Amino acid sequence: MDSLCSMWLVLLFGVYCEAQLRKEAYMTVPNLIKAAGYPVEKHRVYTRDGYILQMHRIPAGRRIVRRIDEPSAKGKKVIIIVHGLGGSSGDFVIMGPEKSLSYILADAGYDVWLANLRGTDYSSHVNLTKNEQKFWEFSFHEHGKYDLPAMIDHVLNVTGQEKIIYLGHSMGTTSFFTMMSTKPEYNDKVSFCVAMGAAVYLENVKPVAKLALVNLNITNMMRERGVWGIHPSMVQGAVKNLCTLNQPEVDLCTNFIFSIIGEDREQHDLDIFPIYLHRIQMQPFRSLEHFGKIALTGVFTTFTGGVNGPVKPYNLTNVRVPVTLVYGENDQLTEKSQILKLAEELRSIGVLEEVRPACSWPKFNHFDFLFAKDVGKLLNKPLVKLIDKLYNKYNTA
Q1: 341 CB burial (10 A radius; 0-12, 13-18, 19+)
Q2: What is the number of structural domains in the chain?
Q3: Distance, CA of 44 to chain centre
């Protein structure tokens, strides 16, 4: 759920100087992976309700010598990584081989599959176009009900494995818990889950949700104008003279972002952040509203009846796989208190493996999971060791 934060970020600003952007801002994810020296595959996945999703696979590390006539990842440990709202598979490669989780996992011997949920540049529909409102009538509910099951089935079919490892960030975790709640049979296809910045309980952002969705009624006002979500072009067209991203100490926009996600100037990457703004994906209003309903009610609820509709909790007792929750000490979006609330619920049903801070850095915020200057050292390299430990404990072979 890089969600409510991204909503305000893009609505109010989203400014960068296009002439100064590095080439990585414009490269496709497969080209980014190739340029980093890794093998890459593109896989097309069809959902039961007609969406077409492209997954990006890194079947081996760059230091692995493979015979051309051999399957590239036969018998390997298979992991699916799922992005948050406004993100894509690119979030897990954009920092490069020494920092990005996908590359570090591939070099450690994992068969890495990067998800792209419906709504990203790497998605389409068999009948609908992205210019039609109906295309955008979804939230993480549909991600959990349709997208994740289709991708998991595809990965298992291609690899011949019985189970996958699941790792999600923000909305990637919300989609996971939605899937397990609504389609509990998929517990049998997942070995364990690592959830970073889990977006399940969000009472800490209730004031923002109330202002945007109740008091100002922003999403419905935009729909009346024929707008169904926050489009990336809004980033390029919004208040270009408001932000001075290269001077974060005095930049109004940077300070505003920090007020939402948590202040971390030391790990704020001045080179990567403008690239992230350029690569941000379409965010449908229904996703923002669904997160808003969770924040307003304090319940991990379905979207039945809309924001003001009845509260119908997802059934988290259906979760049967071990879950490790990883939080940022200074994450103001998916706040520690809300992660601990989820931890208690998972502990009560016997599936909580561990709840732990992302690292020892006290300012680690919601975006630091992906874009911190030292994300490789602070989070990803230790995280791979944790995944190794869990794999050995819950051997997926």
Answers
A1: middle
A2: 1
A3: 19
Domain that holds residue 384: 3-393
pLDDT of 396 reads 47
- The 10 Å Cβ neighbour count of residue 134 is 11
366 is catalytic: yes
Give catalytic status of residue 153 as yes or no. Answer: no
The residue from 6, 102, 139, 170 that is catalytic is: 170
- State the number of CA atoms in the 13 A half-sphere of 129 facing the CB: 1
Decide if 133 contacts 367 (C-beta within 8 A). Answer: no
Which residue do the tokens 């996958």 mark?
164
Rounded Cα–Cα distance for residues 53 and 123 (Å) = 5
Quick one: which H or E segment has residue 253?
A: helix 252-261
Q: Residues 324, 195: contact at Cβ < 8 Å?
A: yes
What pLDDT does 18 receive? Answer: 46
User: What confidence tens digit (pLDDT) does each residue in 185-197 have?
Assistant: 999 999 999 999 9
Respond yes or no: is residue 388 known to be catalytic. Answer: no
Supply the CATH number for residue 365's domain: 3.40.50.1820
Give dist(CA 295, CA 174) in Å, integer: 13
Contact 284, 171 (CB under 8 A): no
